[in-house]
Structure formats: structure tokens, C-alpha cells
Amino acid sequence: AQTVTQSQPEMSVQEAETVTLSCTYDTSESDYYLFWYKQPPSRQMILVIRQEAYKQQNATENRFSVNFQKAAKSFSLKISDSQLGDAAMYFCAYRVIQGAQKLVFGQGTRLTINP
Amino acid sequence: EAGVAQSPRYKIIEKRQSVAFWCNPISGHATLYWYQQILGQGPKLLIQFQNNGVVDDSQLPKDRFSAERLKGVDSTLKIQPAKLEDSAVYLCASSLERATGELFFGEGSRLTVL
Question: Which of A34, A37, A63, B42 falls 20 to 30 Å from A3 in CA-CA distance?
């Protein structure tokens, strides 16, 4: 069974600084997608960034970038120039391409931005 | 473009009562998901529909939970009878493509079972 592990229940960072959230996953599949989702307090979850496993190049979306290490099954999220609006729960998620293609989430990391 | 709509936003019931949640996905999205998110945990998939057929319901407690998606659009998730451990946020999401497509989430329905 596929599992996703986020080992940091909580993280905090000073505004304008950089923070990295960790994620590891377990799978025997070779083709899959990895995602980071953001869930602000009392608001709906939104996609932050997506990585295709077959791509070696790390995905980047403005201030958000990932460090994808396929052999190590590691997928960390780096947030540069942190802003107050980045405060939220962040979930790492995995999705296999074949079969039911279920999206499996990690336990989440609560990110606090200190002004 | 209208987002995923869910209702009710909040519901408080006593154990052994029943409750139903409704979801209207984004127009044209063939795949619909119901997730259960217990406080402090990540969302757990309960059931996934492709149009009006069930793709995955392996983690749905079928003795008390049921879901349907009539005509491949709206969906209803029902719990009967509710238990204390069913207290959670029930998230509905939809996507245009199954594998690569981004999931769009509703605001969720928060259930408290007393």
C-alpha cells in the first residue's frame, strides 16, 4: 500500500525567510504524481505544486519549489520569501497513474509565519 | 467558474442519528471524491466516482456509510447510524482528469457527533 509521511507536525518561519517542509512516500510503482496542497484555516484546500515522477527537473511555481529525490522517495517543498498568507496546513499527496488512481495524503504540516 | 459546492457547512447530531451531505462538483468534472478529514490528520478517501460509477470505495465503512452520484453530477454521502468517531470534516472534490488533473475541493462539511 502506498503511504505518505510528513514528519514535521508543525513548522514556523520568520516572514521573508525560507522554509522547507519534508515528505517521504512509499511505493513500488514507477509512474506516479506528487502534489503539495495548502489548506488555510477554515478555507478549502488548493493545489500548490505538482511533480511528475518521470521528470527529473524539479517543479517550480513562483516562490514555491520542490526537491524531488526519486530514489530516496523524498519530496520536499521549499517556500522562499515567506509571506503571512502562506500560513496554513500543507499536505503532501501521492497519486499512482494506473488503476484507481487514488490520491493519498500525508498527515500534514502546520506552517506558522512570524511577522 | 463556480467551485465545488457543499452543504451543510456544519452539522451537529447525536450518536445513532443519521446525516446526509450534498456535493455539487464543478461543471464538466467527471471524477468526484469524498474524503474524511479527522482533526489533526490528513484527508482519507472514502469513495471515488467516475461519472456515476464507483471507482474505489475500499475505505468506506459500508455498514453505516453510503454514497451515490445520480446522473453523474451531484453526489450525496449518508451516515446512518452515526458514531462518535465519525466526527470530522467531510470534503468533496472533483477533477477533470483522473491521474494528472488537479483536485478542486469544496469548503467541507464539519460533522460533530455528540
Answer: A63
d(Cα A53, Cα B92) in Å, to the nearest integer? 26
pLDDT tens per residue across span A16-70: 999 999 999 998 888 899 999 999 987 889 999 999 998 889 999 999 999 999 9
Instruction: Tell whether A101 lies on the interface with B, counting CB pairs under 8 A.
Output: yes
3-state helix, strand, coil in chain B (%, to 5): 5, 50, 45
Spatial neighbors of B22 by CB under 8 A, at least 6 apart, are B6, B7, B74, B75, B76
| A·B CB contacts under 8 A | 52
User: What count of other Cβ atoms lies within 10 Å of the Cβ of residue A91?
Assistant: 25
Which residues 9-28 in chain B show a CB within 8 A of chain A?
A: none
In tens, the pLDDT along B10-68 reads: 999 999 999 999 999 999 898 999 999 999 889 999 999 988 899 899 999 999 999 99
